[in-house]
Amino acid sequence: MGNFAANEGLSIFVILVWLGINVFLFVHFYMAFLVDRYYYTRVILGHALSWARAPAACLNFNCMLILLPVCRNLLSFLRGSIQYCSRTAARQLDRNLTFHKLVAYMIALHTAIHIIAHLFNFERFMDSQLMINSSHLPYVLSQIGNNDNRSYLNPIRTNETNPTIVMFTTIAGLTGVVITLALILIITSSMEVIRRSYFEVFWFTHHLFIVFFIGLVAHGIGRIVRGQTVESVKVHDPVECHSKFETWGQNGTDCPEPVFAGNPPMTWKWVVGPMFLYVCERLVRFYRSQQKVVITKVVMHPSKTLELQMKKKGFKMEVGQYVFMQCPSISQLEWHPFTLTSAPEEDHLSVHIRIVGDWTQALYTACGGDKTVVLDAWTLPKVAVDGPFGTASEDVFRYEVVMLVGAGIGVTPFASVLKSVWYKHVQENKNVFTKKIYFYWLCPETQAFEWFADLLQSLERQMNEKDMRDFLSYNIYLTRWKDAEAAHLRVQYEAEDDPITGLKQKTRYGKPNWDNEFSAIATQHPGSKVGVFLCGPTALATALGKQCISHTESGTEFIFNKENF
Amino acid sequence: MGKIEWAMWANEQALAAGLIYATGGIVGVAGQFRGWQFACFGIAAGVFVCLLEYPRSKRGKGTSVERTGQYCFTVCVKAFGPLTRNYYIRAFLHATLCVPGGFMLATVLGCVCLGIASLIYLTAAIHGEHWEPILPRREPPKRVGDSIKEPPQNPPPRPPPELRRKKADKLEAAAYDNPMSVTVSE
C-alpha cells in the first residue's frame, strides 16, 4: 500500500479533477437552460433542451482537451521544464495517451446523450408544427416569426417536412451527422485489434479529426438553439403571460408578442487555442523532418534486426529517447517510432529496427539487406527523423539505485542507457548520481541475443579493466528453449563463459522470481528510492507494478516507470 | 503487420453500427416518435447485426484475438455455412438492412454507419477475404517416456543428478539456488 500513493497518486488526482469539471459543467449548463428566457422553448421541448445543452458544454470542454496530450513536442518541452521541480509531475506526462483515450471515451458518451436528447427535440418541434390548433400553445409559438423569419422560436418552419429532411437541411443537423460519422469511424479504427495490426488504417482514419473539428466549429453557426431575447423578457414575462397566449400583441394586453433569437456559437472559443497549438506541433514536426539526415552505417544483425547509424546536424538526445522516422521513397505519409540505441555521448544516432511488417521490410530492401555487395553511401535512401521525444528512461540517472527490465526487443532503450553509463564513467570528471544498476533481460529465444550480447561483452570487459564489476549487475533470463538446446546447455554447464551469450555471467532459465529480487534489492539498499524501468508487455507491467507497490521494506521506495509503444 | 484485412475493420464498424441502430430504434419506440415502426425494425436489425458480427473471424495471418464468450456465437454463425462465410453476401445483407433506417431520424445514424460497414465488407470481399470460425485447438497427446512415469514437458537444462550432488560444496559457483538442500553424498 505504501508505494501506491507515490506511484498512482497524481494520476488519480488529475482524473478526479477532470471528472469533477465535467460534472460541474454538466450541472451548470443543465440549470442554465431552466431560466425564464427559455420558458417557451421548454414549453415545446421540456427538459430535453437541458439534456442536449449540458453534454454540449462537456463536449466543448473535452474537445478542447483532446488535442493537448498528442502535442508531443509541447509535452517534451513541458517535461523538460517541469522535471526540475517535480519528478512525479514530469512522469505524469508519460501517460498522455491514456488520458487522450479517456477524453475520447467521454466525448463518445456525451455525443450519445446529446444526440438522443436532440432526437426528442426534433420530434417535439415537429409535433408542435403538426398539431394545427390555435388553442395549443406549442402551435402558436411555432407560428411566431412567420413574417420576418428572424424572430422565430421553432427552427422547423413548416409542417410539410419531416425531421430527417430538416436535419439534412440545417447547418447544425448536417454538420452534426458529418462529425458524428467521423467520430464513429475514428473510434472503430482505433480499436486495439486494428491499431496493433494495421497501424496505417488507424493513423489515416484518425486524420478525420480535421473534419471533426471543422464541423464542430461550424455546428453552432445556424444558431438553432433559440430563446426569448433579453429585451423581450423585460416586456413579456413568460411566467405571467404564457396562459394568455390567445391575446398576445392585441390592444390592451400587457403581453406583446415574444421575440426569439438564437444563441451565438460558443465552441470556437473553447477549441481555437488547442487547434492553434496542434497546428504549431505539426509545423514543428514538418520542419524537423525537412532537416538533412545522412545514413553513415548500416549493419545487418541476425534475428532480422537492422541497425542504422545516422548523422543529423544539431541533433541532441538524452538516454532512452525515441524518434519518428520516415522514408519518403517507401511512403510519404508514414512515420514510425523507434528507440534510440546510441548514447548521447556518441557522435552519431543509431536505431535497431526489427523487421516485422511492410514498411520495415521495404526499408531493409532499400538499405541493401538482401544484397551481398557493399552499397555506396549515395545509394542509401533518404530518411527523415523527427524527435527526440522523451520517455521514462530519461529519468534513469536521477535515481541512486535503478532496476532496468527489458523483455525481448524492449531492451533497446536500455542499450542507450548502458552505453551512456559507460561513457560517463570513462569521463571520470562526471559525478554520476546513480550508484548501482540491476539489469534484467527476459528473452524467449536465443537469436535475439546476438547484437545486444556484443554490447554486454564489451561492457563486461571494460568494467573488469576498470575494476568496477559491482556497478552493473545483469541477469539474462531465457524464457523458452527447445529440448535439443537444453541437452547442449546441460553439457556446457561447466564452461566458464555462458554457452549462449559468451558472457561471464551465466544465463538463467525460466522467469525471474520478482518477489525475491525485489526483497533482495530492498534489503541491500535501505531507505533509498529505487527507480524501476520496464519496456515490455502489459502483463509484466502489471506484475512489476504490484511488486513495486507491495515492497516497502526498511523505507525503500520502488517507483515504477513504464514505456510502451 | 502486413496487408490489411479489411474484414477486421468492417467487423468493428458493423458491430458499432448494430449498437447504434438498436439504440436509435429503442429511442424511437420509447419516445413513440412518428414512424416508430421503422424504429422497431431498427431494434430487430440492430440486434441481429450485433449477433452476427460478435464472433470475430480467424485472421489470415497472425494471431486472432477472440471477443469474450464468443464461442457460442461462433458455432451459430458457422452453422449457416456459405451464407455467413462469404463477405459479398454480408455486404449485401447489411446494405438491405440499413435502408429502412433512413426513413426515420432516430435510426438514420445507424443506417449510415451500417452502410459504411457494408462498403468496407465489399472491399474485403473484393480482396478475397472470407469468414473463418475461431475454434479451440485440440491439445496434442502427451508423450510418455519409457522409464519415466510423469516427465516434465520441458526439463530445465541441468547437469545429470550425479554431477549435481557432487557440487554441493561449490554452491556459490552455481547459477541459481537449488530449491532443496543438496547433501554431499546420498
From TrEMBL, chain A:
Pfam families reported in the protein's UniProt record: FAD_binding_8 (PF08022), Ferric_reduct (PF01794), NAD_binding_6 (PF08030)
Cofactor or coenzyme needed: FAD
Cellular-component GO terms for this entry: monoatomic ion channel complex; NADPH oxidase complex
Domain of life: Eukaryota
Membrane topology according to the record: Multi-pass membrane protein
GO molecular function: metal ion binding; superoxide-generating NAD(P)H oxidase activity
Keyword vocabulary terms for this entry: Cell membrane, Electron transport, FAD, Flavoprotein, Glycoprotein, Heme, Ion channel, Ion transport, Iron, Isopeptide bond, Membrane, Metal-binding, NADP, Oxidoreductase, Phosphoprotein, Transmembrane, Transmembrane helix, Transport, Ubl conjugation, Voltage-gated channel
Keyword Cell membrane belongs to the record: yes
Keyword NAD: no
PANTHER family with a match to the protein in the record: CYTOCHROME B-245 HEAVY CHAIN, NADPH OXIDASE
Stated role: Catalytic subunit of the phagocyte NADPH oxidase complex that mediates the transfer of electrons from cytosolic NADPH to O2 to produce the superoxide anion (O2(-)). In the activated complex, electrons are first transferred from NADPH to flavin adenine dinucleotide (FAD) and subsequently transferred via two heme molecules to molecular oxygen, producing superoxide through an outer-sphere reaction.
Name of the protein described by the UniProt record: NADPH oxidase 2
Native species: Sinocyclocheilus anshuiensis
From TrEMBL, chain B:
Domain of life: Eukaryota
Pfam family, one: Cytochrom_B558a
GO cellular component, one term: NADPH oxidase complex
InterPro entries, per database record: Cyt_b558_asu
Chain residue ranges for the region called Disordered: 136-186
Segments of skewed composition (Basic and acidic residues): 136-149
Keyword annotations of the record: Cell membrane, Electron transport, Heme, Iron, Membrane, Metal-binding, NADP, Oxidoreductase, Transmembrane, Transmembrane helix, Transport
Subcellular location: Cell membrane
Keyword Translocase annotated: no
Molecular function (Gene Ontology), one example: heme binding
TM segment ranges: 12-30, 36-54, 92-122
Quaternary context: Component of the phagocyte NADPH oxidase core complex/cytochrome b558 complex, composed of CYBB (heavy chain (beta)) and CYBA (light chain (alpha)). Component of the phagocyte NADPH oxidase complex composed of an obligatory core heterodimer formed by the membrane proteins CYBA and CYBB and the cytosolic regulatory subunits NCF1/p47-phox, NCF2/p67-phox, NCF4/p40-phox and the small GTPase RAC1 or RAC2. Interacts with NCF1 (via SH3 domain). Interacts with SH3PXD2A. Interacts with DUOX1, DUOX2 and TPO. Interacts with NOX4; this interaction mediates superoxide generation.
Similarity field: Belongs to the p22phox family.
Function: Subunit of NADPH oxidase complexes that is required for the NADPH oxidase activity that generates, in various cell types, superoxide from molecular oxygen utilizing NADPH as an electron donor. Subunit of the phagocyte NADPH oxidase complex that mediates the transfer of electrons from cytosolic NADPH to O2 to produce the superoxide anion (O2(-)). In the activated complex, electrons are first transferred from NADPH to flavin adenine dinucleotide (FAD) and subsequently transferred via two heme molecules to molecular oxygen, producing superoxide through an outer-sphere reaction.
Annotated PANTHER family: CYTOCHROME B-245 LIGHT CHAIN (PTHR15168:SF0)
Protein known as: Cytochrome b-245 light chain
